[in-house]
Automatic annotation (TrEMBL):
Annotated Zinc finger DksA/TraR C4-type domain residues: 165-195
UniProt KW keywords: Metal-binding, Zinc, Zinc-finger
Species whose genome carries this gene: Desulfotruncus arcticus DSM 17038
The protein's name: Formylmethanofuran dehydrogenase, subunit E
Pfam families: FmdE, zf-dskA_traR
Cited PANTHER family: DEHYDROGENASE, DEHYDROGENASE-RELATED
Residue stretches making up the Formylmethanofuran dehydrogenase subunit E domain: 14-150
GO molecular function, one term: zinc ion binding
């Protein structure tokens, strides 16, 4: 008998493997959908602002339907486990800040094993120990009480504009087409960013 995969199993399949980082995004996505009383977005009904590009973002995309392609996933390179979700249906927004002390609590033995595993020097037994430890951390994140996992609070929030479709122009250097809003001007003609010879003096 063919059994329907659980949301967690679908997240693991989409990401490629199970890990603590994926568990973080899974918990965040579930909290956002539940607290905003929302479902997976077919279009831009729900928006997500993620402040990192770590594993958990894959679970957020899969479960909430917020993706780069639809324009309702906004990435801010802050390196923080902080996520903001906005519902256009209810005009409500939720900010979730994950408890860093929980995420970054590292067993010194596990840290040594990680170095060996990713350095290619771990024995089969050490590799198994490391992945057993990771599985235990993943299970802990998936099952810990919400108040230990994060701070989730409704906030005042201005919804970003919906995604726009721009005209394209032909780059005067390479001949490829570029979104008009991303084109630069070089020698009086539009060029793409890679052909623009960006000039910077450190600011």
């Amino acid at each position: 008998m063919c059994m329907e995969k659980t949301p967690w199993e679908k997240s693991v399949e989409f990401h490629g493997h199970s890990c603590p980082g994926l568990a973080v995004g899974y918990r965040v996505a579930g909290l956002a959908l539940r607290k905003l009383n929302e479902y997976r977005a077919a279009d831009e009904e729900l928006i997500a602002i993620v402040e990192n590009d770590a594993c958990g973002v894959d679970a957020i995309m899969l479960l909430t339907g917020c993706t780069l392609g639809k324009g309702n996933l906004i990435y801010r390179d802050h390196g923080k486990q902080v996520y903001t979700f906005g519902s256009r249906n209810s005009n409500r927004a939720l900010r979730i800040s994950v408890n860093g002390a929980v995420l970054h609590r590292q067993d010194p033995v596990a840290a040594g094993l990680r170095k060996k595993v990713f350095g290619g020097t771990a024995t089969a037994e050490e590799t198994k120990k490391y992945y057993d430890y990771q599985a235990s951390r993943t299970d802990q994140i998936l099952n810990m009480p919400e108040e230990d996992f994060c701070v989730a609070e409704e906030i005042a929030f201005k919804m970003p504009d919906k995604a726009r479709i721009f005209n394209s122009v032909q780059c005067g250097s390479c001949g490829e087409y570029v979104m008009e809003s991303r084109a630069r001007v070089k020698d009086g003609q539009p060029v793409c960013i890679p052909c623009s010879d960006n000039y910077s003096r450190g600011w």
